[in-house]
Amino acid sequence: MLKLMLKFVSCCRAADLRISTAEVLDCMEQLKLVDIHDEFQFKTVLRTNFAKSRMDQSKFDQLYHLFFYEMESNLSAAAEKSPEQLGMEAVIHMMEKELAGDDLDTSLMDFLSGNPLNYIGEVQAIHNREEKAAKALKSNMGQLSSRLEVMLKINRLKAGAVKFMGGNHANIDDSLKAAIENQINTRLESAYNLLNKEPRPDNAGLQKFSGREKHFNTIGEIPFSNLSKRETKEVRDIINKLVRKLEEITTLRYATNNKGVMDVKKTIRNSGKYLGIPIEIKYKNKPLRKGKIVTLCDVSGSVWSTARFMLNILYSLQICFSKVKSYIFISDMTEITEYFVEYNVNDAIKKIMNNTDINYNSMTDYGMAFQHFKNRHLNELDKKTTLIIIGDARSNYMNPQEFILKKMRERCRRVIWLNPEQEQFWSAGDSEIYTYKTYCNEVRACGNLNQLVDFIEALII
Amino acid sequence: MPDGFHIKKIIQQIIDHSRWLDILIPHYYVVSIHLRRTIVDRRCTMAFKSVVDVQEKLGSVSYISSKEIATVVYLAGATKKPVLVEGPAGVGKTELAKSVAECLKRDLIRMQCYEGLDESKALYEWEYAKQLLYTQIIKDKINDVISESSTLAEAIDQIAGHEDAFFSHRFIQTRPLLQAISSPEPVVLLIDEIDKSDPEFEAFLLELLSDFQVTIPELGTIKAKTHPFVFLTSNNYRDMSDALKRRCIHIYIDYPAIETEMEIVRLKIPGIDEALLKKIVTMVARIRELDLKKKPCISETLDWARSLIALQINDLSPEIVTSTLNTLCKHKTDYDVVKNNILTVTRQTSQC
């Protein structure tokens, strides 16, 4: 039993579920308490110990199914092996001899013979592979080609199995042959599925806002990209008002912050005035909540019209919170916090648009931008940071590298994604928002004034 | 024969030393058979015996639990580990803790988390005002203590000998967490909406959850007298740290399946018409599928069913649903969404 469990745990770990030794110990302890012949209870114990968030549960279910159903025949601890198993072993042994035998081959053969550990590791590595930064020509082939390699190998194995079965082998009769062929095919099928059908984690905490409240009637509904010159000015005025409101709220916070615990030192010092009798009690001021905000803003062509407003918002955020770091990206990422500190809003935006080291002609690549952020600025994120990403997630079919976003989410308090496109367009074209959505705590459409007001109110109040 | 009060006292003592119970009871002939039974009953209700037992006991206090919930609660009880309950608002996370407390006949200590919650509000606080007051009152006494000393250093030494008087349990104001572990009877501790608290608070919970002890610098480590049954609930506003998750047993509660929800409504509103019940529950399930700001939860289903009964309505036409929608949708925008989709919602129901 212990061996079996350890095997399962190492498979889970290979598939990027984090399971500590303490959890394995707990699980073994708890298995003693339940009726393990009742599969439901058995599964519940495993699940409750190994998949400790809703996001991990779908992955756990997939692995559980693979391990305890598809690989089932190898689990029985019986000393006597069935003729089918013996035959299977013989076939695999023969096929192993024929293959060239690099790492992938061995792990695939292991998978066939019922040991999925190495294969799961290989697949996970493919999912998490970072694209290499290419300067001249960019493609999303890196991940796809390594997948293709595995798929080709699987096909070759299938063909090999058929060929092998067609040949004449003395000690295997026909019905057994069919059974073995069947099993090899199902296993290869599940290897294929494991590679291509990674389950989307169920993001239970995701909050979605479509913003249906109408703060401003006509002007509030016009998308930022369709504003005329006069309307732009009007929107800007309204945003300025909003910003002032934000500032007022932040100052209010300063006013109400000093109701904390009694400060003994100060009270005693103060009691000197009254012959040592502490009449006046002094309180410790509560420190202000030091939330940090990190914003990543897409400034590429597709969100160009909205980008200016977004930068405007970034600017106002910087005034209201003590620690804000702002970055803009297209496929590179660069920090713009300095501009906002030094210049007033319009000059700052003008300067950003003109003289940063961002290449405005390159193609948007969210995956690459995230990778840059991870390599250079990941230590900006901590458990008090709210990460706000502004962009339409249109990544020109490049590898989205969503596992980097996952890593970023693990390090910060909340991830909020503001999408300037309206929700009905999210699924169209090269938008990756549905991929990224799984790793966000909150996704909002934010393309007109009403939605923007909604967001700011939710953020501050 | 001692009077009633005495018997109560004796029983209390016996329960306190319940490991001696098996030795004591056969010899303790003062305790009548009837009383012995109540003691044994009481000891039995203090813990769950099996998964089925959990389901039955929760059922007896009107909480319909799925098999998964029952398994997890049983495991938590048997291994004395905290349970981390996740799920959308209004599926009965808090109710689960309350029901466990009720069927185990334990007190429930509840702590609501919020941003800015700190140790002094959750664990303990020194009562400075009281300490100061006491120093003022016993000023003369302090003078007596140091009157015999000739030098300043000697006086300080003498006072230091009495330091403990000021940092003792007398001056500690206990807050929910300390209360829970220092209670002589085991309790159920509910830490509600842990995701709303700060990461610092989460870190400070770790010691309590794994070892059931807290450290107060002036007094040392306080170990739990009894192990509380701990529930932590979370709405997934943010992710919990791995360290906290590792110490807990995790369970995710989703909106109940149609049959389960029907059972719940039947239990809370006995005598409801079956056909109407089915229509109500399916319709609420359909409404939950819409893109809403706040999905209707179980208690809102109950409210709706109650108001329909009060209005003596038996058939759910689109008009009636729209006019009673206020009990289900608590946002104007949600109300509009359901109103726009009213035909789909009601048509699908009549098909079912």
CATH superfamily of the largest domain in chain B: P-loop containing nucleotide triphosphate hydrolases
Percent of residues of chain A in beta strands? 5-15%
SSE topology string of chain B: HHHHHEHEHEHHHEHEHEEEHEHHHHHH
CATH class call of the largest domain in chain A: Alpha Beta
Mean pLDDT of chain B: 81
- Secondary structure class of chain A reads alpha/beta
Average pLDDT for all residues of chain A: 76
Number of strands of chain B: 9
For the sheet with most strands of chain B, the description reads: 5 strands, parallel
Assign the CATH architecture of the largest domain in chain A.
3-Layer(aba) Sandwich
The greatest inter-chain interface is formed by: A-B, 44 and 45 residues
Task: State the shape of chain A.
Answer: globular
CATH overall fold name of the largest domain in chain A: Rossmann fold
> Main sheet of chain A?
7 strands, mixed
Number of individual domains of chain B: 4
Corresponding CATH superfamily of the largest domain in chain A = von Willebrand factor, type A domain
Oligomeric composition of the shown chains: heterodimer
> Portion of residues in helices of chain A?
40-55%
Into which percent range does the helicity of residues of chain B fall? 40-55%
CATH C-level name of the largest domain in chain B: Alpha Beta
Describe this structure in words.
The complex is a heterodimer of chains A (461) and B (352). The longest helix of chain A has 27 residues, at 229-255. Chain A folds into 3 domains: 2-196, no CATH class; 207-256 and 290-460, 3-Layer(aba) Sandwich (Rossmann fold); 258-289, no CATH class. In chain A, strand 5 (385-390), helix 17 and strand 6 form a beta-alpha-beta unit. In chain A, helix 16 runs parallel beside helix 17 (402-411). The two termini of chain A are 53 Å apart. Helix content of chain A is 54%, strand content 8%. Chain A contains 19 helices and 7 strands. Chain B has 352 residues and is an alpha/beta fold. Chain B contains 19 helices and 9 strands. In chain B, helix 9 (139-147) packs across helix 10, helix 14 crosses helix 15 and helix 15 (274-289) crosses helix 19 (342-351). Chain B folds into 4 domains: 4-45, no CATH class; 51-122 and 175-252, Rossmann fold; 124-171, no CATH class; 258-351. In chain B, a hairpin with a 3-residue loop joins strand 6 (213-216) and strand 7 (220-223).
